Amino acid sequence: MLFNLTGTFFRMALLDIIVAPDPRLKGTAKPVERVDDAVRRIMDDMLETMYAANGIGLAAPQVGILKRIIVVDVSREGEPAAPIQMANPEVIWASEEERSYDEGCLSLPDHYAPVTRPDRVKIRYLDRENEIRTLEAGSIMATCVQHEIDHLNGVLFVDHISSLKRNMIIRKLQKFKKQQAEEAATA
Ligand SMILES: [Zn+2]
């Protein structure tokens, strides 16, 4: 929970994270027209949801909202939190050098695979005050932001790996979801 500057009271909410395979993860998210209170509320709920799930990034389609909003925080344990909330993030420059990083995703729990992406990127986005900002990111931040922007275009990290490996992960997730549904039905 928090107060904003005008003293309006907001209650944060944890949102349900959609697990793949799910058609809601395959859509193209719509641009945000303006970052207003409603968008800030989504950003705050997403951040809260991401922290509760021990994630370092979350995109709005993962919580069933088809808007171009992402949140990231790649600070390490013991370091001060460093949340960044972005609307309409775009890669405006990418380095030729690439790097491979073991990626995971809150929508593909417990699965990891190396994905190769540009090593550094420059991102343009709207911040929570609706101001245009640019961010130059490297290493894990570059990977994380590119991964989250992919979500806005219906792309998952497994779409970057071999179909053999992708199908194996999706089959396991299907089984995992079926088990969870059965457990929920008998509970
Ligand atoms: Zn993800």
Tell me how many strands there are. Answer: 9
Which structural class should the secondary elements be placed in? alpha+beta
Number of helices: 3
Overall pLDDT level? 93
The proportion of residues forming helix, as a percent range, comes to 25-40%
Q: If strands are numbered along the chain, what order do they take across the biggest sheet?
A: 3-4-5-8-9
The bound ligands are: zinc ion
**Largest beta-sheet characterization:** 5 strands, antiparallel
Q: Low-confidence spans: pLDDT under 50, at least 5 residues?
A: 1-9
Radius of gyration from the alpha-carbon trace, in angstroms: 17 Å
Descriptors:
187 residues, alpha+beta, five-stranded antiparallel β-sheet, two-stranded antiparallel ribbon, 29% helix, 26% strand, disordered N terminus, binds zinc ion
What does this structure look like?
By secondary structure, the protein is α+β, with helices and mostly antiparallel strands. The protein is built from three helices and nine strands. The strands form three sheets. A five-stranded antiparallel sheet has the order 3-4-5-8-9. Strand 8 and strand 9 (132-138) form a beta hairpin. It is globular. It binds zinc ion.
Overview in brief:
The protein is of the alpha+beta class. It has helices at 37-52, 139-152, 163-186; strands spanning 2-3, 9-10, 57-59, 69-72, 84-94, 98-103, 113-118, 120-126, 132-138. The two termini are 31 Å apart.
Reconstruct the topology from this structure.
Elements: E1 2-3, E2 9-10, H1 37-52, E3 57-59, E4 69-72, E5 84-94, E6 98-103, E7 113-118, E8 120-126, E9 132-138, H2 139-152, H3 163-186
The structure holds zinc ion.
